[in-house]
Amino acid sequence: MVGPILTPGILAILIGSAGMVVAFVPLVALAYRRDGRLGALRIVGWFAAAIYGVALLTYTLLPLPAHRQLAHCTGAQLHPLGSVLIIADYPHATLRELAVNPALLQVVLNVALFLPLGALVRWFWGRGWPWALGIGFALSLFIETTQLTGVWGIYSCAYRVFDVDDLAANTAGAVLGSLLSIPLTWRGCRHPDGTRVTLWRVGLAVGCDLLLMLLGGGLLVLGARLWIVAAGGTISAFPPEAETLVFFGVPFAGQAVSILAGSRTLGEGIVLLRGRKGRWPAWAARPVKLLTGPGGFLVLLWAPRSGPFPILFILFVLVSATMLLFTRTHRGLPGWASDLDLVDVRTPDLTAA
To answer: Per the domain annotation, does 239 fall within a domain?
Structure first.
């Protein structure tokens, strides 16, 4: 019994987290352009919402039948309170017996499943219980209809029971979740630093840079492979040299353009930071920032896995992380080497590098 219960949850955590990693950079960019700031609680909320959204599907649709042609089809329960009234068949049941009553458990679990939805509607969109009611009902109807239609025709008939009481319980759960979340606030979604350059903000920039350089290159390679296969070719038609060039070369080119043109990495631009001119002229400072920052990281990562290169890569990462903590405005190794401080792009007295 543990396996069927845990498997959808594990899938939700894996798929939801992977989806959030892919969507992380666009969400950070959107948050900074809409609110000008981003707090840790909002990021936690993003991951929770993604995992919860996938869990709704995994717990209500899985396990899927092995074959499209089903030997046994389920019906539909269309009588309001038809499932709930089964509980009344046990008028003298003890509390222990009620706790394991399938009809009661179904109602309680359906309500609990949609409690987070109502809270998320209030926390993230600032909408009250009427919105939670509408969204909860619509989402529940979509799930129940997906079950009733055999995942919209993929299976020959319904493999789970369509139950109007599930609609009512899910919707009630969303409304209850919205009401219970009224005393709570989402103040932590907005980081109090405003235009200040903090370690948190610079860390977000570094995280976005790493995702763009590593995940971005990987997604480009995957997209190229899928394109070749869709065009009738084979994966072997995409040579390893070309994969390496795409994986490392495209992110390097993107960072080079951003730094050489605007004195900021792609990640710094996402969180509304840029370099402020120091003692060096821009034509000298910007290449130094590129080579001691993202460019150097990619070059050492690209270098052969022999000789001194692995040790140099480890030293580069350790020195960069240490200097990120202790340099002025947390500008790190590239900012220190190029004498470019980090400032908010909205700073009135900004002196562009």
So the answer is: yes
